[in-house]
């Protein structure tokens, strides 16, 4: 492929179309295999929360890794803000550094600890700043990962199934936390999830990927905080399950 194939971080490029993130004609192949991302177009507005759903192998993680600049593109282009953070399913904390040191990893300045404490308090980990990562529960470790992501004040936050490994109750608490943090920080968010209810609780839009293409792009026009009991929730759940080819009758 000799067409334009690039990831352009930087506010100037992102200003195009008024969107924070613009994906245009994005195609990704591994070797001679089929296109895992197939001429994909997607725009995310500043401060918009987008959930990305799709069956296993539909290309969600590949898209996220490409947006993060961790994977090259085969064809097409991506423009996005310079300041991005990613949270993965596993916390990826360094076990030989304390929680606060993990939170400000790669950052300098005399106020590092103070900044770490502030953001750890924000995610509800103020009592564990000096703990070692291996002593944290799964939920606490993901809180620390969120703190490390937020301390960089990203304009674009990517979350790759961040709560998939947590028990159902902890997951609900973490969803509430992410919702609160997003309302406070108002960065653009792309959340990869298999959980339709999680998408409906959190996102402004749910995008369903199928074989590397967008099959459905569904606005979620519900005010927050959202309730599972809301009749609109039931309706949108049905639409999304249909888009995923899952029928709940
Ligand atoms: N490094 C790689 N080399 C070859 N093929 C790959 C590589 N990474 C991903 N793929 C393939 O690309 C396709 C999409 O993978 P991807 O991980 O993006 O899917 P996904 O939607 O995130 O799946 P899951 O929900 O299971 O995480 C899959 O068929 C996968 O096998």
From TrEMBL:
Where the record annotates domain ABC transporter, the positions are 21-236
UniProt cross-references to SUPFAM superfamilies, sorted A to Z: P-loop containing nucleoside triphosphate hydrolases
Tell me one Pfam family matched here: ABC_tran
The alphabetized UniProt keywords are:
ATP-binding, Cell membrane, Membrane, Nucleotide-binding, Translocase, Transport
GO MF, one example: ATP hydrolysis activity
Q: Which InterPro entries match?
A: AAA+_ATPase, ABC_transporter-like_ATP-bd, ABC_transporter-like_CS, ABC_transporter_ATP-bind, P-loop_NTPase
SMART domains found in the cross-reference section: AAA (SM00382)
Task: Give the similarity note.
Answer: Belongs to the ABC transporter superfamily.
**The protein, known as:** ABC transporter ATP-binding protein
Species this chain originates from? Gluconacetobacter takamatsuzukensis
């Amino acid at each position: 492929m000799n067409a334009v194939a690039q990831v352009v971080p930087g506010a100037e490029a992102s200003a195009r179309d008024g969107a924070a993130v613009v994906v245009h004609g994005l195609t990704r192949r591994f070797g001679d295999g089929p296109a895992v991302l197939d001429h994909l177009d997607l725009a995310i507005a500043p401060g918009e929360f987008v959930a990305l759903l799709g069956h296993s192998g539909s290309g969600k993680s590949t898209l996220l890794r490409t947006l993060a600049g961790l994977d090259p593109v085969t064809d097409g282009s991506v423009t996005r803000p310079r300041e991005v953070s990613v949270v993965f399913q596993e916390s990826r904390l360094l076990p030989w550094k304390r929680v606060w040191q993990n939170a400000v990893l790669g950052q300098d300045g005399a106020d590092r600890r103070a900044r770490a404490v502030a953001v750890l308090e924000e995610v509800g980990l103020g009592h564990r700043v000096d703990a070692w990562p291996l002593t944290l529960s799964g939920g606490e470790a993901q809180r620390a990962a969120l703190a490390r992501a937020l301390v960089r004040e990203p304009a674009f936050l990517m979350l790759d199934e961040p709560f998939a490994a947590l028990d159902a109750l902890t997951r609900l608490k973490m969803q509430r936390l992410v919702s609160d943090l997003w309302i406070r920080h108002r960065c653009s968010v792309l959340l990869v999830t298999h959980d339709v209810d999680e998408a409906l609780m959190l996102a402004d839009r749910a995008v369903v990927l199928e074989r590397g293409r967008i099959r459905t792009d569904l606005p979620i026009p519900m005010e927050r905080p959202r309730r599972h009991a809301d009749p609109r929730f039931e309706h949108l759940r049905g639409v999304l399950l249909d888009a995923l080819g899952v029928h709940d009758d």
